[in-house]
Fold this protein.
Amino acid sequence: MMSLRPRAARLPLLFLFAAVAILPVHAQIASPDDPASASVIPQSALLQPEQLNRELQQHSPLLILQVGSKVLFQEAHIPGAAYAGPASRPDGLAALRARVEPLPRSQPIVIYCGCCPWDRCPNIGTAWRLLHRMGFTHVRALYLANNFGANWVALGYRVESSQ
Amino acid sequence: MSNLPNNRDRLPRCRCAAAALLLVLALSMAIPAHAQPAPSLVHRPAPEFALPDLQQHPVDLAALRGKVVLLNFWATWCGPCRLEMPRFVDWQKQYGPQGLQIVGVSIDDSAAPVRPFVQKLHVNYPILMGDAHLNERYGGVFGVPVTFLIDRQGIVRARIDGGVDLPALEKQIRQLLTAR
């Protein structure tokens, strides 16, 4: 006579089947270019505003890319920074890829956005993930907790405008 | 024999407490409590502008004198902006007849993503495409959302950096609408 397994013992199997069924659907939804949150950036890759300001004062050769809004960039940006486009949009991400493609993968790069609070920024995590996937090994993301105004301009750090 | 510590024992503890107090004071002075990106426009006349909306209709701030104006700088990719805009649509419907006029200024790089977004949200107030010059005239808009509340006389009554406290702002709007 066939013995039936107790109901409780079958539960883990049910969960396993459900997980296997959901996995491909989820993989299809999350495209590699979907906006990523800032939480994908490891703590070790964060750069504090005061540290970047010190490095700028020491004239460290840095490639600084703004990966957010063009209007905000034109209004005020970190001296020497270049505009790379909003990484949350496909055209912005393509512009960033084109900008860094010819560079050696050991090139030190600083990216920043500051369009909105760090944990809600759609650009910075997406930009960092692209550079990481392209093989860049020295990428740092400027940690702007609230936005560029509150965490850079209001602290009296230098800005340039490109109007 | 008394169990109370003598004065010599107490001294290092006092020094530690004083040092901690000084450190806290120094830190509180070093960190601005409410960092404002630029000198405040509050209680000053709102800088005038005349720009076309997405349908190319001119929107002239001077022509809105006599109305309470909620001027909202936003972008399609901005999470907090997307959260508050449906409430602005409700307010325009509810308070428009009493003299509220909401005006949105998008800082997106182009109007292309703005048009479908505005249609999807059934935005019932004019949306303009902003630029760095307008941002500067409004005291620096270095992140979004930033919202200005302007009274019927054209005076800026509030600047809110970041997502608004919706109930508090609605209360302020109602006060300005009833003040003649």
In short: The beta strands of chain A are 46-47, 63-66, 82-83, 109-112, 139-142. Residues 128 and 135 of chain A are 11 Å apart (CA to CA). Chain A has six helices and five strands.
